[in-house]
Amino acid sequence: MKPGEDAPAGAERCSLCGELPVIRMSGPDRHLCAAHLIADLEERAARTIRERELVRPHDRIAVAFSGGKDSTALLIILSRLLPAWDDVSLVAITVDEGIAGYRDDTIRAAEAVTKKLDIDHVCVSFTDLVGDDLDTLLVGRETQACSVCGILRRKALSQAAHNAGATKIATGHNLDDEAQSVLMNTLRGDLPRLVRTSDADSHDCFIPRIKPLADIAEKEIAAYLFVQDLFPFLPECPYTRHALRAEVRSMLSSLEQKHPGTMRNLIRSKRTIEKQVDRSAISEPLRCCLQCGDPCSGEFCQVCMLRKSLGK
Amino acid sequence: MNGHAQLFPTHTMKIILPDATIQEVPGDPASLLVILDRLGINPAEVIVSRNGKLVPEDAVARGDDEIRIIRIAHGG
Ligand SMILES: [Zn+2]
Ligand SMILES: [Zn+2]
């Protein structure tokens, strides 16, 4: 055995064939080669979609597509599952928040992917929505970056999805994101948000949102892309270090490493609570924003409240 | 000098860190888990390639392997 050669005799092999493994996965514990990793992820996403009935015949799915790893994997997986569905179409939507030194590269990466997959692609910007880019909006309030950005991105996305005639909005949220959200909502004591239903929101005012990758770990997604030479080597959003999520993310991934299954258990707890809870007792009923008419829980929607606080 | 070092006396393993800096270490066989632990990197937050090919974190690196540690950026 020469140094630098492949695995030594007796080393782990793919649990399904004799090939060299590219990843070790838990629940159940197994090693998979590149081909079996790809098949495994696509099958699990297909199962999530089937079991939760996320896609129906004649759906037009707007895919929230930033060009980062999760949405790239989502778009590729949906485009591969597409032929099996009855009259379903995809449109990719990229929101340009206007984050210098970060977003330009990801938008170029996004355009290259949709071109290669031959999928309709729409780009919208925060400047179109509120007249300023995120960097300008956030001067002096950097710690609020993720909530400001989240509110505006949600709005920009639903507007663009509506204009594209979409019946569903698909986002690339993965298992890690879901587990982080459960813990964050718990840490903030935000019960209404904790039990907000995980599957397609059924309210008529909203285009239902679906998360086909909710059962797939972040690391599995990264590996899925890497073995297909599709991993986007892009910088992390410069604002994430201000966020509670960054702390929760690092804490949860340490726990998951020491105690495999932690993230799934957290999500399972949330699902159990979700089923038991009388949602109407803890959430405000939906109303229409007095300013813009969009559905919201208070007098004004979050976007209009944000506009007001920004003096827009 | 231990037995492993004598097996590959002239080899140096090259470790490319997420920030693109390079560490050169003696080529004694070591599990990537051990290498990551020494560097204080959580295996859940990275993927690792050995000589350009993705490998699980319990794979072994040795000799003049080139190990690249890629941080998984949040979001996307
Ligand atoms: Zn295999
Ligand atoms: Zn409003």
Tell me briefly what this model is:
Chain A is α/β, with parallel strands linked by helices.
Task: Describe, in plain words, how this protein is organized in 3D.
- The complex is a heterodimer of chains A (312) and B (76).
- By secondary structure, chain A is α/β, with parallel strands linked by helices.
- Chain A has helices at 34-51, 69-81, 103-117, 126-130, 134-137, 145-163, 175-187, 191-194, 218-226, 244-258, 262-276, 279-282, 302-309; strands at residues 23-25, 30-32, 60-64, 89-96, 120-125, 168-170, 209-210, 287-288, 295-296.
- In chain A, strand 1 and strand 2 form a beta hairpin.
- Chain B has one domain (8-71): Beta-grasp domain (Ubiquitin-like (UB roll), Roll), CATH 3.10.20.30.
- The model of chain B has no long low-confidence stretch (mean pLDDT 87).
- With 76 residues, chain B is of the alpha+beta class.
- Chain B has 2 helices and 7 strands; from the N terminus they run H-E-E-E-H-E-E-E-E.
- Chain B has a 5-stranded mixed beta sheet with strand order 2-1-7-4-5, with no helix packed on it.
- Helices cover 17% and strands 37% of the residues of chain B.
